[in-house]
Automatic annotation (TrEMBL):
Keywords on record: Membrane, Transmembrane, Transmembrane helix
Protein name: Uncharacterized protein
Lineage, broadest ranks: Bacteria, Pseudomonadati, Pseudomonadota, Betaproteobacteria, Burkholderiales
Sequence intervals crossing the membrane: 28-52, 59-79
Origin superkingdom: Bacteria
Length: 91
C-alpha cells in the first residue's frame, strides 16, 4: 500500500496533469501510513482517494488494500500502537 502511494506520488510529480492538491494529498497520506499515524483514518482517505481520483487499473486493488488496512488497524510498531496502546484479541 505504501509503495502504491509512493508510485502514485512519483507519477504526479513527473509532470502528469494533476492539480497540486492531488500531490499534496498523496504525500500526506503516504507519510501518515508510513508512520502509522491515525492509520484507520488515513487508510479510509486513501481508499476514497483511489476510488474517486485515480483512474488506472490498479486503483481498485489499492482501494481494496486500504479497506483491509482500515479493518486490520495499525501494526505493532506503528505510532498509533505507541500512542493508544496495542489492541489485544481475546478469544
Amino acid at each position: 500500500m505504501r509503495f502504491a502511494l509512493a508510485a502514485q506520488l512519483l507519477w504526479h510529480l513527473a509532470g502528469a496533469a494533476a492539480a497540486w492538491w492531488h500531490t499534496t494529498l498523496a504525500v500526506l497520506l503516504s507519510l501518515m501510513l508510513a508512520a502509522g499515524l491515525l492509520t484507520p483514518v488515513a487508510a479510509a482517505l486513501c481508499a476514497c482517494y483511489h476510488l474517486l481520483y485515480v483512474g488506472h487499473a490498479g486503483s481498485l486493488i489499492a482501494a481494496a488494500t486500504a479497506v483491509a488496512l482500515v479493518l486490520m488497524g495499525p501494526g505493532a510498531y506503528a505510532a498509533d500502537a505507541r500512542l493508544f496502546g496495542r489492541r489485544k484479541i481475546l478469544m
